[in-house]
Amino acid sequence: MFNKTIETLELDKLRKLQSERLLSVVNTVYNKVPFYKNLFDKKGIKVSDIKSINDIHKLPFTKKEDLRDQYPFGFLTVPESKLARIHCSSGTTGKPTVVAYTEKDLQLFSEVVARSLTAAGAKPGMKIHNAYGYGLFTGGIGIHYGAEKLGMTVIPVSGGMTERQINLLRDFKSEVLCCTPSYALTIAHELKKRNIPLSEINLKYAVLGAEPWTEAIRTEVEKGLGVTATNIFGLSEIIGPGVSQEAYNEKGTGSYIWEDHFFPEVVDKNTGEPLPYGEEGVLVFTTLTKEAMPFIRYWTNDICSINYDKQGSRTHIKMSPIKGRADEMLIIRGVNLFHTQVEELINDFSELAPNYQLIITRKGSMDNVEVKVEVSENYYKEQRLNGDLLNTETIQNNENLTVLTKKLEKKIKNNIGITMRVKLQSCHQIPKSEGGKLSRIVDLRK
Ligand code: ADP
Predict the structure, then answer these.
(1) Sign (positive/negative) of CA torsion 158, 164, 166, 168?
(2) Residue 336 or 81, more confident
(3) Which of 115, 236, 244, 322 could form an SS bridge with 257, CB 3.0 to 4.6 Å?
(4) Which is the closest atom of ligand 1 to the Cα of 96?
(5) Ligand 1: does its nearest atom lie under 6 Å from the Cβ of 439?
């Protein structure tokens, strides 16, 4: 562990620390940020009402729109001259929002990334191939300084130019890869395409995040790159990557949230009421130690659940994988749907790749969903060996694939309760990101 004392702090001591820090942050925002003063006054909330972390639910939420309204510096608690760095969110859901850091905030950022990388399996002295985008986005630079703090050798490749990435992996023999899960798949496919055996690269761990992913993607990345792959989660408003991290020896049990700095809650998507541990809802964070731009109950819009793991090596709470964003939840003929539900079903077929897109259209009052999904590289190769070149036309006439299409359609209907039309695609037909995020949904109803 990077910071064993804190990572294994007993819960009662953690609560005490969180309470002290919450009181201080509430006091600061009330006195320094007019937005919060007005909001607290309007809602009749007094700073003195907040006596411990258990009172957190009395406080109002902060939403992305509030950040946009206060653009660029309305949330600052320090003069602009005290800022050490400014980042922006990647703007997946609209105009990017601005986040700012003091020198102390940057130290905190590096600390949580160093903790995360250690939990992912990284050690001082290892090389880290950082293929997250560098620039305004928090991913690249955030990981960079955290890795340096841990004592790693950083290769700041940034995203894109896959061929060069492979050459560098081969030449420098990095042990750790950081990128989005979809880009890790792209690298794995490229290795395969170029017939480069895993013995020529030296990767041991992949730290993947910035977009939702599933166990099937984990299996494919682990096999394709010869690594142990874990989840890193974060968002610019709270700090950037390193808000939470899955431990490499506790895979599949959730990601530790570094709750001495970021206090998590899961609340009902519609009412905002706090939900019990284990129930799924919107993830909300209060930054307990951030200096330049602290946020109270920031509504992430990400859907997951949180719970303590008594078997875990650390005491901090764990979050489940993100299912999607609350505003990404589709309503199809009255049924709630996240694209990851379809993905879980696709994953049961070895002939299919976890590369898919849901196309939603409406005819009259009827919603229609088409699932475009690619056949897997292995299946594609197998068929080619049989002399059966797979393209859009031959796929429709391939008997095996016709049966498989029907099977998947039935599975979707039985599990999700919605009839969807499955359309298989040949390999690499669905546009993939070069380091960016993948759009799984094309909603043509709007
Ligand atoms: P945005 O994409 O909202 O413009 P950011 O660049 O700060 O802003 O990205 C943060 C968002 O990315 C999170 O709120 C979440 O939706 C998504 N994200 C980050 N890490 C993960 C992860 N490990 N799993 C799922 N989603 C993630």
Answers:
(1) negative
(2) 81
(3) 244
(4) 4
(5) no
